[in-house]
Amino acid sequence: MDYKNTINLPSTDFPMKASLPQKEPELLKRWESEKLYEKITASGHGKPKFILHDGPPYANGHIHIGTALNKILKDIIIKSKTMSGFATNYIPGWDCHGLPIEHNVEKQQGRARGTSQLETRKACRAYAEKFIAIQREEFKRLGVLGDWNNPYLTMSNGYTATIVREFGKFVAAGSVYKRKKPIQWCASCRTALAEAEVEYENHRSPSIYVKFPLVSDISTIIPQLAGKNVSVLIWTTTPWTIPANLAISLHPDFDYVAVAVDEDIYLIAEGLLERTMQECGIQQYAVIARCKGAQLERHSCKHPLYERQSLLILGTHVTLDAGTGCVHTAPGHGQEDYEIGLKYGLDIFAPVDDAGCFTAEVDHVAGQFVFDANKPINTMLAKSGALVAEREIEHSYPHCWRCKKPVIFRATEQWFISMEKNNLRTRAMECIERIQWIPRWGIDRISGMVINRPDWCLSRQRVWGVPIVAFYCTKCKGLLLDQKIINHVADLFEQEGSDIWFYREASQLVPNGTVCPHCGNTTFEKETDILDVWFDSGVSHAAVLEKRPELESPCDLYLEGSDQHRGWFQSSLLTCVGTRGRAPFRAVLTHGFVVDGKGEKMAKSKGNVISPDEVIRQYGAEVLRLWVASENYQEDMRISPDILKRLSEAYRKIRNTWRFMLGNLSDFDPAKDMVPYSDIHEIDRWALMRFNQLIRRVRAAYEQYEFHTVYHSIANFCITDMSAVYLDILKDRLYCSAAGSPERRAAQSTLYIILKGLLELLAPILSFTADEAWIYLPGEKAESVHLSSFPEVQAAYDDPSLAERWETLLRVRDIVLKQLEQARVGKLIGNSLEAAVRITAPPAITTLLEHYGNALADMFIVSRVELTRGHTAVAGSSEKQIDAVQAAVFRVGGNKCQRCWKYYTPGNPQICERCAAALQAS
RNA sequence: GGGCCUGUAGCUCAGUAGGUAAGAGCGUACGCCUGAUAAGCGUAAGGUCGGUAGUUCAAAUCUACCCAGGCCCA
């Protein structure tokens, strides 16, 4: 007789092979048609809210692994909060304006100069829409649930109106001002360039050394120099900026030397002395004095070309890499020059027009193109005796991406929000203190940035963005900047969109009857600058959190990469503090960046880029989700083909464990067959106890957003507690007991509780598989695992004395297992059921083991266990007691039961008594 | 160059307030099973805790410096 047909083997349609790349889209379709997201939000009625506000990704290109990581993390958090009993929702958004899109559109449009601003904006909008549609599908494919049909877009009419109104609030508060600031400028295209539009190429430039005679008497500092011709020697590669020179920067800590050359004395940094003398072709020189840079602060030189002075100032940007250590400073023509210029209250002087020509302000070279003016300026310097040396060098210099010509740095009027006005900086710092930053060092990072940041430069000389709503009087050129007018325009944007700014005349934009407050004139011109896109996304708290009834401000959490301490977190904080006096979030969580297997940045040139699409096609989105959960996102996250392969194997292990559990529940109906806790076996209680610990641990980990702890805990539980111990031992009871017997039902009851709980605990991470397995789970249940909730910790399952007993039992089991392996190596046995084991243990342990009787054999999966009480009691710790346990393995005698394969003392012909009884029962 | 952060077995993670010979899972090797079977089980081998120098009776855990890497600035 073939007894295989008489045992209860596992049976399930839940496939072993996941086929995720094919299966996931089917599940997604089902979720969508069954309106899973809507049901989840509906189920939140009456529960406390948890609001995570989505930071808008930029609507450009396909998603990359970093965007996928970000969205999956958000999804895991929202799902875990839902299952922890919160009302949740997820409103995704997109950042739509800005240079990269405009830039790409311009590239597509080619060099057609005739393109109007409106046409460009239209093309930009279409471009953004295209990528929003693409990214939306890509995000959905990851298993991210959300209100994908109603996302927020920073280019929508309502949103742009909010942007303008928020700008108006800053205006009303007096925080907005205009000031010159140097930017990259292409004189041939007559346009401002962003950093991304600048290409660095080699360029030949003049290299000149110029002396600026000291007019201050510094003999009080360096007596040796009394009555001498002392000059500060500078070096520059842009002679055309000399007319705009207002200062010379020195490093406060550097040593400067006074060098006598013929009749002159030059001041230069000691560390650059030899090099400078060599460059200037000076052989004869002598150091006659020295001092610290700091000592020279606020002394003055005479400008070599004009009747004005040049101030000696101090800055740590001065280096000993090149030059003289005395840095020619023109605040209107250099970033660092500008910053230090502000510090010393210097004029941001840039006497150069849009075409790159000197204005009439400058004598001698007025009207000349700056690069053409280099030569005449050098000649003039030579004439006045200020030119110490002149040569040419080749160096890397910024060029325009479009016309390939060298660009200039030039101060132009820009719009700012003051960090000091209304104490914005101070108040922001106070708010930062009250926010929860995860990880904790986030507070140091953002504090450092807010303390040091300059005023916020709001303006961009671009078209694809929200206009800065300001007007200029056509008569007196005075500025018209007024909250009422701004709000009027915002209303127009709300109704007709911000394009209106570009096709309507100013007269059609200002309210009727608007007059210039300076001269009473009634005609105006529009401002042409647009707002920095960080202002767009920064006001999402106003445009989204405050506008949507399902949201609220402040919300619970913002979650982005750690680069957003400078970006969105800060722009959101500043716009909210500036207008509402508080932060828009209660907590901010950051994740690290995705790097390759070696911890290095991913780059096309390195060939180490892994795209989400690749992973999905090869393994499925589920494995990507598992990857997100498996690593600690607070640090940089490594990804490589090898890591993914490992993970997909871990996935299979978890899946198989679930499948085995499902297979053994095929004939189990919890409504009818559930065995109460009081009647299940001790090992079942052990399993529940371990599971209870898991629930506790996992729920705490979710609460602290530590998903790698969730993953490791559950994986370990499935692999060790379940697969290697409980399930392996349980097979005999499940397979060989009569199908409806109390002992089998007890095992199934335990399996059911644990499996259901495992699916729930892992649903936020393995969203696809947990829901797939959920379908096969027997009994009454929610429609989807995502509509269920996390299992509760059951105080009844905790049993400290049972825990202690099983600690010992499992230690003894390890000892037995080792001996069984020895027996296998010695060819004494193959299958462990061919073994009988004699255990010799100290009395205390023997007493414990005796208590379990025949169950011990099942626990070790052998056919027989004999106990021998050790002669001497072992004193001391339980550790020592266990070390004293010995196990001896023998080949078991008797017959092999044809049904359960255990060996038994002959009696029945083919099967053991237990099996005979089981057969009778069924 | 500056600010913030990271560096424990091949991989992903644990290592409590410094204190007995540094742990887990995976992977690897070897073996068992063939009633979870493109599965399951077992045993074993892997680490001078990035490096150096300190503080201490004692450091993976504290300090300094260095190296490698990341983000943001310059």
Characterise the protein shown here.
By secondary structure, the protein is of the alpha/beta class. It has four domains: 3-13 and 645-798, Orthogonal Bundle (Isoleucyl-tRNA Synthetase, Domain 1), CATH 1.10.730; 20-164 and 540-630, HUPs (Rossmann fold, 3-Layer(aba) Sandwich), CATH 3.40.50.620; 202-407, Valyl/Leucyl/Isoleucyl-tRNA synthetase, editing domain (Isoleucyl-tRNA Synthetase, domain 2), CATH 3.90.740; 802-891, Class I aminoacyl-tRNA synthetases (RS) (hypothetical protein PF0899 fold, 2-Layer Sandwich). The protein is 40% helix and 18% strand. The chain contains 29 helices and 32 strands. The strands form ten sheets. It has a six-stranded mixed β-sheet with strand order 11-9-10-7-6-15, with helices on one face. The protein has a four-stranded parallel β-sheet with strand order 1-24-25-17. Strand 31 (895-896) and strand 32 form a beta hairpin. Helix 6 runs antiparallel to helix 12 and helix 21 runs antiparallel to helix 22. The longest helix is centred in the last third of the chain and has 30 residues, at 707-736. The protein is elongated, with a radius of gyration of 38 Å. The two termini are 16 Å apart. The structure holds one RNA strand of 74 nucleotides.
